[in-house]
Structures are given as structure tokens and as C-alpha cells.
Amino acid sequence: MFSKKEEKRAPCTVEQCESCKKETKRKFIEGDYIFKETSPCVSCKGQLRITKIFGEIIKT
Ligand SMILES: [Zn+2]
After folding, report:
1. What is the pLDDT along the chain (60 residues), one digit of tens a residue?
2. How far is the centre of ligand 1, averaged over its atoms, from the C-alpha of 48 (Å)?
3. Amino acid 1: pLDDT
4. 43: which of 6, 14, 29, 37 is 20 to 30 A away, CA to CA?
5. Is 3 a domain residue?
6. How far away, in angstroms, is 17 Cα from ligand 1 center?
7. Ligand 1 center to residue 29 CA distance, Å?
């Protein structure tokens, strides 16, 4: 169902490092899915995994 208010949503992806538990939010990229293993963590080289995909409301 669509809401009456017009709002724009930008799909976002949240990745979490399995080692240091650091969470990173970034733009959704085609092909992303929950629990997908992505690039290594920048701080500890651990495995990043996608934990959340959501639509972030953009205020215009
Ligand atoms: Zn890490």
C-alpha cells in the first residue's frame, strides 16, 4: 500500500564485521542480500556480512 504522503526512499545496506562488530552503513548495491559476505573490514580485516537492508526516507 502507498501512503498519502509523498516521500522518497533510498535503499541502504548495513554491513557488520564478524570480528570487531563494527557496523557500516552504505548505499544499497544491486545484488546485495541479507547475510551476504562482502569486502573485508577496513579496521581488522575480518569478514563483513550484510545484516540489514532498508529504505531510508529522504527529506526533500
Ligand atoms: Zn572488523
Report:
1. 666 777 899 999 999 999 999 999 999 999 999 999 999 999 999 999 999 999 999 887
2. 7
3. 63
4. 29
5. no
6. 5
7. 21
60 domain residue, yes or no:
no
- Record the pTM: 0.80
What domain count does the chain have? Answer: 1
Could you tell me if residue 42 is inside a domain?
Answer: yes
24 CA from centroid of ligand 1 (Å)? 10
Domain annotation covers residue 16: yes
Task: From 1, 57, 54, 2, select the one nearest 23 (Cα to Cα).
Answer: 54
For residue 25, the CA-to-ligand 1 centroid distance in Å is: 14
Domain with 41 in it: 9-27+34-53
The C-alpha cell 559476505 sits at: 37
SS3 18: coil
Do the bridges between strand 47-58 and strand 37-40 make them parallel or antiparallel, or are there none, so unpaired? antiparallel
